[in-house]
Design brief:
globular; alpha+beta; 5 strands
């Protein structure tokens, strides 16, 4: 995956790379354990996500893949009804950055 080919609003689907990830994929009958959205800001590619123990966060995609190596599939809307849909989704997702998530919250 080349980060220069990504666009804001692209969907990132993560294959399980850990025991917990494999458990999530198995319990949800999925090939994936996690999903996120791409946000490109000032030339930097970020992953927007909501994760257990972290909550909502924005992390540089390169750092993410360096610290948690896994296989990622990138999906993109071919013809969104409105061109602003992918950017709008990423902007809405940013509202969750810093919010707590999990069984205790």
């Amino acid at each position: 995956m080349n980060p220069t080919e990504l666009h804001t609003g692209d969907i990132l689907l993560f294959r399980p790379g850990s025991l917990f990830g494999r458990l999530v994929a198995w319990l949800t009958w999925s090939s994936y354990s996690h999903a996120g959205l791409v946000s490109i800001e000032d030339g930097v590619t970020y992953c927007l996500e909501i994760r257990e123990l972290y909550g909502g966060r924005r992390i540089e995609l390169e750092e993410y893949l360096r610290t948690e190596p896994t296989t990622v599939e990138v999906w993109r809307l071919k013809k969104p009804v409105f061109r602003a849909v992918p950017s709008f989704a990423a902007e809405k997702m940013k509202e969750y950055v810093g919010m707590k998530y999990g069984w205790l919250h």
